[in-house]
Amino acid sequence: MLKDKKILLGITGGIAAYKAAELTRLLIKQGAAVKVVMTEHATEFITPLTMQTLSGNPVYKDMFTLIEWSEIGHISLADYPDLIVIAPATANIIAKVAAGLADDLLSTTVMASRAPVLFCPAMNTMMFTNPIVQNNIEKLTEHGYRFLEPSSGQLACKVEGQGRLPDPPEILDAIETLLAPKDLVGETVLVTAGPTREPFDPVRFITNYSSGKMGYAIAQAARRRGADVILVSGPTALNPPTGVEYIAVASASEMRDAVMARLDRATVVVKSAAVADYRPSVLADSKIKKGADEIVMKLERNPDIIAEIGRNKGDRVLIGFAMETEDLVANATKKLLEKNMDMIVANDLKTQGAGFQGDTNVVKLIRSGGRIDALPLMDKSEVADRILDRIGDLKAERNDGRS
Ligand code: PMT
User: Fold this and answer.
1) pTM
2) Which of 314, 364, 366, 375 minimizes the C-alpha distance to 335?
3) 387: how many CB neighbours lie within 10 A of its CB?
4) Which residues line ligand 1 (CB under 6 A)?
5) Which of 6, 34, 122, 155 is deepest in the core (most CB within 10 A)?
């Protein structure tokens, strides 16, 4: 997602400076190049050596250090990034930039740069809510600078309130959102994710191994790209991505009802949930007791949600998934055509790094027109983007087919 993106990370003097180390690690893991500028005060909280080791680049602190021979430090750094992130951002750096002050390397670089800037304020609650700080934030926002809201909780000064630097994954999400193309603005993407649970008594149910990671990655990527996102999810251990409409369900019937109630609003439907095809015919009122004999359980068909959507597709783009253990392309193509999908994402449980639970997947994108794109092993977040990349094409293909 951040492959080849250049991030200039500014660190100012606050106790939350330690979180900049983890943020740098996450940025590098996502493929970004990171250069770090630290204020004098920041070096009291975290060492330049730590940041240099993690970023793999020299750390810049001094205004008057010449970078490579004749380059002027702040000018060369100002031209470098796709995005400047200041985390943590103290009241001081916010005030300086709001006042147009440029008296150290970080403030000078920000003033000299045309790159977007994301401030991640972290400070004591009384400071953060001080009208002077709030006015500075408002002024900078009007000038196009971006702010990530500090989170609430116990602060270093033992006071409860707003002012904590959000955790690095949340800052990373804000960065990825800022840098993502906004090609899905105007779309409403309905995503299903996770397993379903089909109970047969009050304490037990039939389910499968889906963790929800693949579907949540799609929901998050679509939201970053500007879509309104509805995420209908079976039970998972994941936190719903921020900024999506989240509906928790358990059984396939509940998932069907939740999807159908919202289908009118959807322009794109992505069905990555692993829905149980069958449910126990009888749901016992009380716990089934162990006996001497074997138990035979009768199962009945669950609603086929994607088939129902396919019959009522209208202008929507419909993308399904297929989890197979043999004849991947043939079986997936059969589902694609029978259920009127535009594309099916086929994954094979027997392929290393594919399918349930892990952070990666290996998929084939099979379109109704017959085209097959085989993607290599990649993170589920990247698979999500590659799926969403196809939406424009799928719409165009459908329109061509009609004309
Ligand atoms: O959640 P993770 O751990 O990240 O794992 C991801 C995944 C393996 C679950 C995902 O990549 C995946 O393959 N999801 C679909 C699994 C599946 O149920 O495949 P299927 O071949 O049984 O179903 C085909 C399609 O019909 C799917 O889009 C499914 O959502 C849909 N379906 C199936 C049954 C049913 N009753 N209603 C449906 O809508």
Assistant:
1) 0.91
2) 366
3) 23
4) 194, 210-214, 252, 271-275, 277, 302, 304-306, 320-323, 335, 347, 355-357
5) 122
